[in-house]
Structure formats: structure tokens, C-alpha cells
């Protein structure tokens, strides 16, 4: 997959895609001309693709060709603003394969070339600088890897294409992976290929010739591009290791770093041990690129993702998380498939799987959990993600296999949801102690989201309205601050203090989870003498290793950092002053300045990280806000905050609510975030904003705001629907606040009932109740 914009970070939680599967059995084939005798550049026309409905699942499918199969590449060959599909079929014996492009939904088919095509991936880009898209294709056999590029004929691409041989890449192995990208930043596209034995780079010179560089690599396959180290260029990610791109990739060495040796170790003596499909994407929304890997050949291997903590520390710099098993996963990609603002995983099985399926692994928000959804009961091969119908979401294109037709497009037909149907439920009517935070994660490994608050966690019963079993976290952990995989073993842990309720307590403990609902407590944290009780918490990775940042109610204590050692259960966690600068309230993380590392939002101020010490900046002044009687010393103070791209410009904006003011504001990030941010008013909230989060609540592709009131006569739960990219917000009342209820550090969106929409969990300060607001949109 292409590297996603590193500024793009939206906070959200799970949402199921609304797809409808179409079966073509018994519906009739599209009428098309035989292609065997077609000449290069000749175009044929076929009838529209058939449409129908399958009783098994509900995913819409278009068939673009029932005659050819193989590798598929989406690109706009005819420059009409709509995606076309390039398809390469293998040559067999003396019979050449074909390279052709399909346009107009598969109604037109143009032959690009005939050759003994082999290999597993195609590429496109303007290689000759004339303004149109050229194509790159591998040629050869299993034991011979060659490369050719095809010059676009101009116009609509239906003329004769010219073949140019780039030469032999590997005399002993086929081309497995192929990417087109300007690797060295000189404005000229490079072709990066991996064979069974080497990685090679090709680039066109001014005289039309191509220069190349070949470097040996570990066997056998797997290549993705992504900026892992945040230096602005694309690094090369291979099976279990990655190469850091130097300033001059034509002469300087590519430094090698391991992220998981599993993918290049000879475990069984089979070539399959070295097979992999890696991708690079920011799965947890922290602004840093993570890695995910699937096994394309074997059965029984789980999809695995690796959180980027410190990429140049080797395997210790990556947190490994195993997801579900996907047999023979020969299609693997990342995209916001369900439109909730985070990146989901698309995983497709080849025809070698016992029961081939195309799956969406739905990111539940922050990569806390991934939920399995069946998109289609068909095999796929190197499926590609593309907005085929121009409706703003990602569809999926694939052939049936590396040799077999048809070529299918699986359409993404998600629909926006309403925001006015809600049901209030109690998870716990009377909490044993006041909870400072509420969070959700799959603690017992059963696939649904459990809830953590105070010193207890609550087992999701499977149906929201059923009784929730309360389980105590192991003593002496008494007050939860952070729910996270703290030790990097792939299981969720809990960090907190040894105090009860809001009583001052500076002694910490953490509970190490085993992924099955059992925890072991540790107190190896040296953090005595810091603050009173925790008001905000944040998780940071990077060159300093795993670090937790804490904001205390006592403003004078600054921000405390907890540094997690490499052996978290054996060594002592150390506390340090992260910054003297604190607003003593909420914290939010994200890459606010686009430099590839995480920064910290404090409310109306933020800390620029990545240097020797945090640098404070101000978003904008708030001296003109009208104070309420609750304002500290008569001056409003920022309380809850969140980072999200409100206006869709690719930059992280800030949403801020206040103590002592009824204003709910969002601040548009400027190109230079150290300059003043533009302030916008979302709404007046009479009960003030002590409880707020952001997420795409209606699945329309933008970020909405969830607020729970704290100091009103009736403390409502409100959804502010983002309209026209932050130009205005429409208020929806999810709960009218009847009875004894308030919201404090709650109102967290999460799909609790697994129905594909976002519910809300919340807690109060005055009322010790753990609430669930079930979204009835689906």
C-alpha cells in the first residue's frame, strides 16, 4: 500500500461496512469479443457487467472481465478521472501472456503487450515525463526475473503501446514485488523491485536510458514502502526486516533493521517460511507508521501488526500484536473501509485456502482490537484498493487467482447513519469507588469490547442489555489511568494508582494481562512524590522507548513521564519530569507539526516533541470567553481536548472544552502550527464540557464531537454532527439527562454491541454509575 499522509490522524472507533455481495451464477455472462487475435493497441467493447444478489452475504460485485485473470493494477490510463484496471496474465510454455487495460467498468479492453509475463505485481507512473501513465511489468519465469516498461501512446491510451526492456533483474529468481515511487526525491519516478534474491532500483536518465542498482536480500518475497523513521523519505519494508533509505540510494548503504525474525527464519525447510505480504500504515493513529504482515502461502498463520515504538532498535522497538488467522492471505491492504476515521485491514485468501474468503478486519479505534467481517465468499489474488466508482470510499479489485478469471470489483456501499436513536443502559449502577477514567478493550480475547473503570473491569455479555460481570483488577491497583499493551506482548494491560476514587495517591501499580481475562499485579514503578490524582494520560513511543505521560490535578506538579524498561516485569519503571509546563487537565497525542513524531496537546496549548526538551506553543487566547461561576479564580480553563482533522485538509485540528465556560471550540491548524490557530465555535454547552471525544459517529467520512454535560440541571449526552467540514455543527440529543446523571472524563465512543455503529460509554463525578448509551442506528 502507498504510505498514507503522515498528518492524517482521526480518532474514532469501530464501524461495520455496509456491503452487498453479488453472485454471478445463473445471471449470464457479459457479451465480449474473443481476444486471442487482438493486436497491441486494439480495443474491444463488451456489454455492461452483470449485477445480481447472493443469499449468503450482501456485498455488491462488478465483473470487469470473465475471460482473463492474474495480477490487477488500478490506475487512470485514459485520464478521464475514473479508475481503469490493468491486468497481466502469465505466459504458459510457448504461449505468451497478455498485458491489457480495462476501461468503462470492463466494457472496453485494450491490449498493451504480449510476452512471457511472470511475477506477482505491476506498476504505473509517468516514467518518461510526458504527462501520461506508463506501465511496468515483470517478464520471465520462476527462475528468471526480467522487467519491461510500456510507453503510453498518448491520448486515451487505446493506441499502440511501445515495449522497452529494462533488462534482467535476477537470473535466478522471478520478480515478486514492484513499486513505483520517487525514492531519492529528485522529481523522477524510480522503479523498486524485489525478486527471490535481490532488491533492485531503476530510474530513467535525461537521455532516456535507465540506471540501476541491485542489492542482495534475504529470501523470498514481500516489499512495502513507508516512512518508518519520520525523515521524510520512503523506507523499504521486507519480510521481517526493513532498510532505511539513505540520502543517496544509488551509492550509499541501506541500513538494515529487524522488526521480527519470524518472517525470514527457515522454520520448516520450506520456501513458504520466507513468504510475506507486509504493509505500512498508521494503524493506531499515533502519527507514526506501523507495519502489518500476512502469510500468503501457509495455513494457520495469524495476521500480525507491529506498533512503531523505536524502529531503529531492532525487534525490541516494535510491539507485536497477533490478530486472527487468515489462511493463504494473498491479498492484504489498509484503508478506512468503514469510514470511521481509522485504518482497517483488508485480508483476502487465495484459492488454496479450504474456504476462501475476502475479509475486513475492522479497527475498533486505536488498533485496540480488530473485528472480523466477511465481505465476500470468493478467493482473491493481490487485491488492490481503489475508489472505483468515485464515491469517496475504497473498493476492492482482484482476479479470481493468479491465472483464473474473472476480474471482480467488490464495491464498498457504506451508508451514513442517523444520530437520533439511542438507549440508556447501566453497566454498573453503583461503582465501588469514583472512577477517574473509562476505557474499553478486548481483555478476555473473545472478540468484543470490555469496559474498564476505577479498580474494576466489566465483561461484555455479548448483548448490551444483559448483566455485565464486574471483576476486580488485582490489588493494589485501585484506580485505572491507562489501558494499553504496556509490555509489548500483544495483550492489553492496565496502569493506575493504588488509590481509591479521587483521593490523592502517588503510588502506582500495573496489571499485566494475558489476553484471556487474567491479570498479575506489579508495583515496580518508582514514582513517589509527584502529583495528587491523574487528570490526563498519554502514550508515547519513539527514540526514548515506551513512555507514559501523566497530567495531575495539581497544576504545580507539571507533567510526569513514566519510562517503561525493556523488561517491564523485571526492571523498575522510572518517573521523571516530562515538562514543567502543564494545564493540569486532558492530554491528546498526534503529529501536530508533520515532522513524523508525536506531539502533545494540553488544551489551548501544545508541546512540540522530538527535540531535546518539549517546546510549548499556544493555539490562541481565550481571554474573551465569558466565565461561569465555576471558572477557576474567575477565569475559564481548558478541560477536555482532542486532536482530529475537522476540516479535512490533512492537518490535525484541536477540539477543546472548558471548565468555567460554556463554549465548545475547535481550532483549525495553520500550515505552521507554531503560529496562531483559527478559532471556531461549535456550540454553547450549558452544562460545560468535562467529558468529550471525537469520532465519525454517522459514518459520513468526517469527524463529529461527542459531549457529556456535567453541571446542568439535566446533564445531556450530545452529538455535534460535522457539516461542511467544520463550517457548522448540528446538535443531536442522544440522552436528555433525566434522573441522576452527570458526565466527567467519559463520553467515549466505542462499538460495544458489535453491530457496526458507535455506542458511548460514560462515567460521572457526582453519580457513581457506569453508563452505556447504545446506538440503535443499526
From TrEMBL:
Q: Where is this region: Disordered?
A: 34-59
Database matches in Pfam families? FG-GAP_3 (PF13517)
**TM region positions:** 12-31
Low complexity bias (residue ranges): 40-57
Q: Which UniProt keyword terms apply here? A: Membrane, Signal, Transmembrane, Transmembrane helix
Protein name from the UniProt record: FG-GAP repeat protein
Keyword set includes Signal: yes
